Amino acid sequence: KDVQKESEPHVYLSKEEVKEKIQSYNSSVTDKLKMTLNANGVYTGFIKVHLELCRPITVQSSQSQGRCAHSTNETAFYLPDGCVNTLHISSTNTVREVIEALLKKFLVADNPAKFALYKRCHKEDQVYICKLSDREHPLYLRLVAGPRTEMLSFVLREHETGEVMWEAFSIPELRNFLRILDKEENEQLQILKKRYAAYRDKLEEALGGVWKPG
Question: Which sequence ranges are marked TM in the entry (predicted)?
Answer without folding.
Answer: none
